[in-house]
Amino acid sequence: MAAEQFPTLGAPEIAFLGRSNVGKSSLLNTLTGEKSAKVSSTPGRTRTINFFALLDQSQREKMIFADLPGYGYAKISKSISEGWPAFIEPYLAMRSTLKLCVCLVDSNVPMQQSDRQLIDWLRAERRDFIVVATKVDRLSGNERTRSLLALKKGLELDAILPISAKTGVGVKDLWARIDAACGELN
Ligand code: GDP
Predict the structure, then answer these.
(1) CB within 8 A of 150, min separation 6: which ones?
(2) Which of 43-47, 85-89, 137-141: highest mean pLDDT?
(3) What does the alpha-carbon distance between residue 144 and residue 162 come to, in Å, rounded to a whole number?
(4) 15 neighbors 92 (Cβ within 8 angstroms)
(5) Ligand 1 centre and the CA of 60: distance in Å?
(6) 121, 80 in Cβ contact below 8 A?
(7) What's the pLDDT score for residue 171?
(8) Can you give the pLDDT at residue 42?
(9) Nearest in space to 183 (alpha carbons), one of 66, 101, 95, 100
(10) What is the pTM of this model?
C-alpha cells in the first residue's frame, strides 16, 4: 500500500495502533459491533491499513477507524519505521483528517521499548493520542493498579485508560474521547 492508495480524505479519522496480539481486533469489534463497513483494504494481507467507516442514521460516513498493522516482532530499532511498512509514518505524519491515535498497550506485559518509541514519535509529531491498557479483566485490583502505574511511569503519561474488550470496562470512556476528537457532541 503506497500513500497515494489511501482513501480520499473524508470524515474524521481515528487510528488504532499496537503490538501484535495486544487485543486490537477484539477492541475494534467491541467498539464497532455491527455498525461499521470496511471501506478499503488490500485483501489477504495483514500488513496494510484497514479503513472502517462508521455510518450515521442517514448512512453517511460519520467517522473512519484506521486499523494499522501490528508492530513489535521486529527487534528494537532506532526508528519506528524499521520493521514497519513504509507507509505508516507518512500516514501518521501527514493524514490531515486524523484526529486521534489510540495506542494500545497490554496491561499484563511490562512497558515495551517499541511502545515507548511509537509514543515518543507521536509526541514529536504533535499528534493527539490516548494510551489504553488492554485486557485489564485478567488482573486483580492490586495487580491492575500496580501495572497501570508502572506503564504510566515507563511511558511518561499523565493518564492511561484501562480497558477490556471482554467485559466492556473503559469502552464508554474511550468512546467519549473518540467522539470529542471528532467533534461529536454526546
Ligand atoms: P490483535 O493481534 O492485537 O488484533 O489481538 P486480538 O484481538 O486478536 O487478541 C489477542 C488475544 O488476546 C486473543 O487471544 C484474544 O482473545 C485476547 N484478548 C483480546 N482482548 C482481550 C480482553 O479484553 N480480555 C482478555 N482476557 N483477553 C483478550
Answers:
(1) 110, 111
(2) 137-141
(3) 9
(4) yes
(5) 30
(6) yes
(7) 96
(8) 47
(9) 100
(10) 0.91
| Side chain identity at residue 169, one-letter code | V
**Using one digit for the tens of pLDDT, what is the confidence trace for 113-161?**
889 989 999 999 999 999 999 999 999 999 999 999 999 999 999 999 9
Give all domains of the chain, ordered by start, each with its CATH number: 3-182 (3.40.50.300)
Which stretches does DSSP call E strand in 19-68? 36-40, 50-55, 61-67
Q: Residues near ligand 1 with C-beta < 6 Å?
A: 18, 20-26, 70, 134-135, 137-138, 164-166
Q: How far apart are CA 31 and CA 23, in angstroms?
A: 12
* C-alpha span between 78 and 60 (Å, rounded): 42
In whole angstroms, give the CA distance from residue 111 to residue 106. Answer: 9
- For residue 71, pLDDT beyond 90: no
Q: Where are the alpha helices (DSSP H) in the chain?
A: 24-32, 88-94, 113-124, 141-154, 171-181
The alpha carbon of 11 and the centre of ligand 1 are apart by a number of angstroms equal to 28
Atom of ligand 1 nearest to the CA of 19: 3
Cell of 32: 464497532
What amino acid is encoded at 49 in this protein?
I
Show the cell assigned to 142.
Answer: 492490586
Which residue's CA is minimally distant from atom 25 of ligand 1? 135
CA 175 and chain centroid, separation: 13
